[in-house]
Amino acid sequence: SVVIQECYVQNTAREYAKLYAAEAEPLEGFGEVPEIIPIFLIHRPANNIPYATVEEELVGEFVKYSVKDGKEVNFLRRDTEAGQKCCTFQHWVYEKTNGNLLVTDLQGVGMKLTDVGIATLAKGYKGFKGNCSFSFIEQFRALHQCNEYCEMLGLKSLRTTHQKQRKTMSNKSKNLPNSSTVKKMVPKKAREPRDFISSEH
């Protein structure tokens, strides 16, 4: 069901965020690290919507820190500490998984994030398939700009590798389906108030 998938995705992303924190927190000057809050599945057998998700309520200004697609560029990503650290988290996961997995839709209040997505390459990663199109990974590679936190973690810039790949891949890319057809295959559902998110299965 959609609800179970949502829990699985967020809690998988949460495990990566914990590993990121363990690596980043000891670094001098890094400071607070973004956290993905846990999401719990509850079963309500008497209810006509038997499964629901529960999570901590985030109070404050809700901000989207990551690029959803090429059209939506959020300047708060570059201008705030939380935004920069979210971009670094994406870069860190991308490098850790050799470009096979990306945590997307980083959004929340301050350093507390929720309702994230995961994009994997078409074949998935270690048996896990994300809930976002793999075109998000290509977009991230093209749009990510390293910041001081990427440098603190010693992450490799994506700029040079991307430009080299473009030359060799330009002939092949004509055969790939364009991103709009890929996106249709993996619709990201509209957000409803969380307590009432449901799936009839």
TrEMBL record:
<dbReference type="GO" id="GO:0004674">
    <property type="term" value="F:protein serine/threonine kinase activity"/>
</dbReference>
<dbReference type="InterPro" id="IPR011009">
    <property type="entry name" value="Kinase-like_dom_sf"/>
</dbReference>
<feature type="domain" description="Alpha-type protein kinase">
    <location>
        <begin position="1"/>
        <end position="158"/>
    </location>
</feature>
<keyword id="KW-0418">Kinase</keyword>
<feature type="compositionally biased region" description="Polar residues">
    <location>
        <begin position="170"/>
        <end position="182"/>
    </location>
</feature>
<keyword id="KW-1015">Disulfide bond</keyword>
<dbReference type="GO" id="GO:0005524">
    <property type="term" value="F:ATP binding"/>
</dbReference>
<dbReference type="InterPro" id="IPR004166">
    <property type="entry name" value="a-kinase_dom"/>
</dbReference>
<keyword id="KW-0723">Serine/threonine-protein kinase</keyword>
<protein>
    <submittedName>
        <fullName>ALPK2 kinase</fullName>
    </submittedName>
</protein>
<dbReference type="Pfam" id="PF02816">
    <property type="entry name" value="Alpha_kinase"/>
</dbReference>
<keyword id="KW-0393">Immunoglobulin domain</keyword>
<feature type="region of interest" description="Disordered">
    <location>
        <begin position="161"/>
        <end position="201"/>
    </location>
</feature>
<keyword id="KW-0808">Transferase</keyword>
<feature type="compositionally biased region" description="Basic and acidic residues">
    <location>
        <begin position="189"/>
        <end position="201"/>
    </location>
</feature>
